[in-house]
Give the backbone structure.
Amino acid sequence: MTFFQSEIVQEEINRIAELQEKVYSDVFSVPNMNKSEKIEHINLLEELLKKQEILYFRLNMSDDPEAKAMKQQIIEGASSLGYSRDTDFSQVFKNMNDVIRRLKDSLDEE
């Protein structure tokens, strides 16, 4: 069985796609959201990030050529956003989690 034939991987990729669609479709509405809507949006963003981090970890652990190709696509995509090709993605995920924590903290202060 290849990496992408795994039912778990397929479910996770589908959930990531759903979360991305929801988060991206609401991103321009955030300034007009009330506090509970903002909290829900941040929670979706947090879930998305966790799932992406787990998928990236699985890609790293896999010897499947398709998984390696997807990992390379992620690296290429990140490099087009200004990250170097040897970026430590565990640090990127940590930084993103820190941003989410700060967003939550800022809502707690409202």
Remarks:
- DSSP finds four helices and no strands in the chain.
- The radius of gyration is 16 Å.
- Residues 32 and 51 are 27 Å apart (CA to CA).
